[in-house]
Amino acid sequence: MAAAGWLSKDVAIIAVPIVTLILGLIIGWLGQRSGFCSIGGFRDFFMFRHTRLLYGYLTLIIGGFIGYLVFSLITPAAFEGFFWLLKKGIMPVPGAPADLTVTAYIVLAIVGGIAVGLIGVLLGGCPLRQVVMTAEGNIKSLCFVIGMCIGAVVFAALVSGWGVTLLKAVGIA
Amino acid sequence: MIMAEIKVKTEENISCLDTLARNPLYVGLAIGILAALVQVLLISAGGPEAYGFCVACHTRDVVNDAVNSVAGTQLALAAISQNAILPVMTVIGVLIGAFVSARYYSEFRTKTGGIASYIWYLLGGVFFMIFALFMGGCPYRIGLRIGYGDVIALIGVIAIIIGVLVGIKIATTMAEREG
User: Fold this and answer.
1) What is the interface pTM, i.e. ipTM, of the complex?
2) pLDDT in tens, B76-97
3) What is the pTM of this model?
4) N or C end: fewer C-beta atoms under 10 angstroms in chain A?
5) pLDDT tens-digit profile of B123-133?
6) What is the pLDDT of residue B5?
C-alpha cells in the first residue's frame, strides 16, 4: 500500500515545489535571524561550552519527533515507518545508496559522518549555514554551494557506484 | 492617534516574533515540526520518509533534475522529486528567504576572500556533498531521522561529533603553528 498524506497524489505532485518553496522561505528567514547551524552547535560547545546553537539542533530532533508523533496519530498512513526502530529494526530510513547490508550502512554512516563533521568545522558551517551566508553575500560560501552542486552530479554519476563496488569488494555490502 | 497606537502595537508584535526567530531553540523546534507537516502533506507524491528538510538531498534533487532535463541523463533523485512536476525547492526557498531577511535587517554584506580560499571552499563543497549523500543526508535530515527512530542516524551524529572534534584539533594545531 502506498503511503497517503493529506493531499491526494494528483494534488501532491503539483504541490511539492510550492510547499517546499514556502518551507524553504520560512527556514531561510529563521536561519538568517538565528545563525542556526548544526555543526557550529557542536563546535561552539566543544570549544567554548556555548550551548545556544547546540540546543537548537537538539530541539530540531525533539521537534521532529513531536511532529511525527502528533501527525502520525492523526494520519497514520503518512508515517508507515514511524517509529522506525520498532517497525523496521536496525536499518536506515531510505536515502543512502539502496540495498546494502546493515554493516555497510553503519560503515557509511561512520565514514560519512566523520568527513561531514571535519569539513563542516574547517570551513565554518553546516550546509544550511553556508546557504544562508551565501544569501548574506559571502562569496566563499557561494563557492561551497557551487561545490555541493558539482558534488551532487559527481556522486550520482560516479562515486556512488564506486563506493558500493568498494564495499562489495571488501565483503561488507 | 489610533493609527499611531496600531503602528506601535504592530512593531511590538514584529519585534516579539523576531526575538523568537533569533533564538535557535525555537528555530530548531519549528524546523522539526514543519518538516513533519511537509511529510503529512506531501507523502502521497512519493518517499522517502523523514525527508521534510535536508540541504544536501534537496540540493541533489534540484541539480540532478536540472541536469537530467538538459543533458538527458538518468541521475538518481528521490521518488518525491521524480514524481512531482518540479523537484523539492527547499534550498532555493532558503536562499530567497535568507536574502530577503538579510536585506530587510540591513545585514547583507559582500564578503570576499582569496582565490585559494575559493578553491578550498569549492572542493570542500564537493566532498561534503559526496560524504553527506553516502550517509543519507546532511546533519538536518540525520536529526529528523533520529526523531523518526533511525538508529543508523544516531551513529551518524556520533560520527559527526568525532569529525568535529578532529576538525577542532586540526584547526587549533594549524593556528598554533602559524603562531
Assistant:
1) 0.94
2) 889 999 999 999 999 999 999 9
3) 0.92
4) N
5) 999 999 999 99
6) 75
Number of CB atoms found within 10 A of residue B172's CB: 11
Under 8 Å between Cβ of A117 and B164: yes
Residue B130 cell numbers, joined: 559526496
- The answer to whether residues A70 and B98 touch, using CB atoms and an 8 Å cutoff, is no
Residue B52's alpha-carbon distances to A24, A74, B80, B141, B149, in angstroms, are: 10, 18, 11, 8, 15
Q: Is B114 on the interface with A (CB under 8 A)?
A: no
Residues in A closer than 8 angstroms to B100, CB to CB, are 25, 28-29
Indicate yes or no: CB of B170 within 8 angstroms of CB of A83: no
